[in-house]
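ugh ok so i messed up the first submission bc i forgot one of the chains. this is the corrected input, ALL of the components this time, i swear. 642 residues overall. if the numbers dont match what u have on ur side tell me asap before i send this to the collaborators (the ones from the other lab, u know who)
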Amino acid sequence: MNEVIKISHLTKNYYTAAGEVCVLKGVDITITSGEFVAIMGPSGSGKSTFMNILGCLDKATSGEYLLNSNNTTALSKNDLATLRNNIIGFVFQGFNLLPRKSLIDNVALPLVYAGVDSHERKERAKQILKSVGLEAFGTYLPTHISGGQQQRVAIARALVNKPKLILADEPTGNLDTKTSQEIMQLFSELNEKEGITIVLVTHEPDIAAYAKRLVNFVDGKIQHDGPTERMMERVQ
Amino acid sequence: MTFIMLAEAWSAMGANRLRTFLTMLGMVIGVGAVILMSSIGAGTQAKVKESIASMGSNLFIVLAGSMTSGGVRIGSGAVQTLTIGDANAMEEIDSIAATAPVSSGTAQMVYQSANWNTQVTGTTPSFFQVRDWNLESGYPFMDSDVRGATRVVVLGKTVAQNLFGDEDPVGKTIRIKNSPYIVVGVLVKKGQSLDGRDQDDTAMVPITTAQTKLFGSQFKGSVRFIMVQGVSESTMDKAEKEMTQLLRQRHKLRDSVEDDFTIRNLTALANTAEETTKAMSLMLAAIASISLLVGGIGIMNIMLVSVTERTREIGIRIAIGAKQNNILLQFLLEALMISIIGCFIGVCVGVGGAYVVAHFFPINVVITQNSIIISFLVATGVGVFFGFYPARKAANLEPIEALRYQ
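and heres the new structure output, hopefully the right one now
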């Protein structure tokens, strides 16, 4: 099986006015292609920091992180940007769409940095928007649609450059229960039909239930790691 | 890529129109001021140059000199020590092209019902050569007129207009101090002199006529001053020396005695005037470019605010794959666009302002292509220079911090 993420002995320290804070204390994990992983844990357990490192937005203090066989610790800022662009799709809690741009432009933005020409950008963005059921809203601004729709647009943006991996940081945190279920179904479909690897952070067990594998962080370490059904009983 | 970046910069500018406008206004005023000031400077320079050219080239003026009478020194021109003979003798010097003795006064002229008071210059035909002054119609008087002291007159344009209106004066007879004179020619318009006098408000008669029939003279053949034209600019110093030598000899001055004449190099004086206006226009442009600098600082200020405001946007862009250069270019282009559009409007304002100034004030204005090109280059430079720091600040943002920014 193809390893998308391979992490060994990962630590992360922050230096604050109060002194050195150890957020991640030695994390080892391997995620293979096609997995759907939910990361849970109380706040302060280091799961968000871990996600930032997974997304190459932050660097580890020590340890090794291979993303799709690229050793991220050795790469420059610009190389990491290219890696993010080609391999990762981000879905954020706060959607993070550009407010002044139409939905099509928002979805097409990663393709701008991938160097795709303008005609193809439009075509691909339209297609992806259609696949998340928003083809009729292409020229709307993000502020003109609902939160659930905005998150669909964000997912479309994450998908547009055909990523191997989607990182979702509490993607349903700002949504109501019904919309949350719809978004999670969309993730499940993407995982099953397209075979895209998904890693998502959540603190709601019923959201985590959509994933096939559950990783539980406590105090900067992985406490439990295993198939979701089995884990759920333990967590609860 | 380039096109989308431009569109990106354009939409960012449109997002906060008032702010963009105010930022641009700094550039508009800066560029406008530079264009306006430099065109006023160039206009003044052109005017001075024109006056200098109208004076004639390589020109000396030899003034009848001061004299000491019982210990009291009297100013130059007070005593008439120069004569027509001096003028003729100086013409023999190799480095001198022509000389024209002048003795002048003012007189009332009458033609039918019109009359006009002007300065009448008694001189020789070589005056027209020395002053580089052509005739619009008719002919100048000739050496024979000087020899015969005939009553002929050449009118300046202003005088001709005042006496004759639209009528052609050549061949007509006017009365100067109640004696009839035949108008033989009209001079071309020369415009203002360096000191602002109307050079066309004048009339010329043969010097002998002026001395014997019009004004009389204290001593026979004495003149107020002699205009001298050197052969070339490079021999001006030599000509001055030789003239001094010759005049001292002719006036029988001993070595211990001071010159009883004064030689002034008018071309050198004119060059000084030109240098002065050049310095003045440079200073005007320098003062105006300070406002350009202030405009540039305004751009930097706004770009810094804009970067801070859009920190989250920058974070999103970096997260989905923007490289540092992409972000740098985005903000640099925005600054550049503001400054170039501002510059374009500024050029229009400056050129328009120059026309307004020229229309409502008695100031000569010349819009030079150079000042526009330089303004554009400077504005572009200002945009890049003052946009670079904010753009680099944006490009160096850490993605997680930028994404977390509220």
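quick check: Chain A is about 35% helix and 30% strand. that seems consistent at least. Residues 177-194 of chain A form the longest helix (18 residues).
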